[in-house]
Amino acid sequence: MKKLITYLSIIVLIFSVSSCKQEFLETTPSETVATPLAQYKLNGLYLMMVNAGTGGTTGHDDFGQKGYDIFSDMLSSDMVLAAVGYNWYASLANLSATTDYTNNTNYTPWRYYYRLINGANDVIDGLGGNDASPTGDSAYGMGQAKTLRAYAYYYLLQLYTNKYDPGADVLPLYLKSGSPAAGKSKQSEIYAQIIKDLTDAVSLLSGYARPNKGVINKYVAEGYLAYVYAAIGDNINAAKYSKDIIDNGGFPVTTKAQATGGFNSLATPSWMWGFDITLDNNLNLASWWGQVDLYTYSYAWAGDPKVMDKGLYDAIRNDDVRRTQFTGVYQGKSLLPTNKFYDSKKIIGGQRVIEMDYVYMRVDEFHLLYAEALAKQGSKDSEARLVLKNYLTNRMNSTSYIDALSGQALLDEIYLQTRIEFWGEGKSYLAMKRNKANVKRGSNHLFFAGQLFSYDDDRLFLKIPQSEINNNPLLK
């Protein structure tokens, strides 16, 4: 059941890290309950993850994490911008934005993630600082804040670097709120801090009974630990944390029926973390649903559909239920995700103010990541095959073809299944990076159709924005 939002007050969060000014943020989102100051500030950060304009613009592509999920899905080429009537994402799809640091595509995620970092730092500072050992509710607040900080740095590293290179100087690392502008830290330093934050968070959140799935718990922190270890090639730890989530998290996999059930409810048992959107959030066109869903008053409905890459669709087996997710045809465009994501009323152009929820993380991710991490260890192909087959029994009628796969062929299949399973959820780009995959654009792309791109192509990652360089001389 949807919960009403009660706006208890406005708190000051100093979100800027160099050029941004102090800003105010309303609380509380429906994910939270009235609690002491640390949780009260965290409520504002959870809300910031879904609000429009949190990247500092009025653009209808500026709406928090799910907006940048679209960015990354397009950079992976798995999501196709099938028309450009309204021009949102056109410069991303044609890869001109990623070679022009003045383009807002580079600015909005940078501002959003560093605002989250500064807000998380504010919570951490208020609870005693980075080295404090709080207990009780303060420990739970610290665990959430450290997870949010780690999550933000993880995404910055994925989006603003071309590949994992521990010695490369890449981004500023801020660990206190209101810190003065800093120069670039090495990837190794930032990853080490992310791992420390998440390891701390797992301990701090142990035993925490969160009020609902909009709030971070231990297993969400473990999920990001698994992703981070996978990104740096530590497949033993990636497998370890993935398996713990599977074995002990209490989340069943998304069923075959749920795979075509709309992906619109935080109550879905497989969802580990998301956002329970209500009318009070007042989301509309500037939202994920407002960009992708045909059954919403959306850009997809008005003429700018986002569809599956034709090559990826053709790779889905005929007996796979996910093939039916992308059967939508509208205004001459095909492969719309009309049977995966949809407003529950299923009226074309119908949902005006968004009530359908957001998914950030679901347990299915860690079944496939576990298989991937096992396969990358060289000696565990048989275990990886079993994990993959067990998962895919929920998607297709026969998995016997997997028995013949080993080595790179097995890894390629796991990567393919990851792309298919998480289309539209912002996971394909992360998988492309950690698997060092080449990407060939399908025939239905408006730009570069049929062209092959390496995962580390200069056009496939964002650049530090002009405004940041102008305001932070240490980056020049």
From TrEMBL:
PROSITE patterns: PROKAR_LIPOPROTEIN. Keywords: Cell outer membrane, Membrane, Signal. Residues 337-475 form the RagB/SusD domain. InterPro entries: SusD-like_N, SusD_RagB_dom, TPR-like_helical_dom_sf. Residues 83-229 form the SusD-like N-terminal domain. It is found in: Cell outer membrane. Residues 1-21 form the signal peptide. One of its GO terms (cellular component) is cell outer membrane. Its main location: membrane. Belongs to the SusD family. This is Glycan metabolism protein RagB. It comes from Elizabethkingia ursingii.
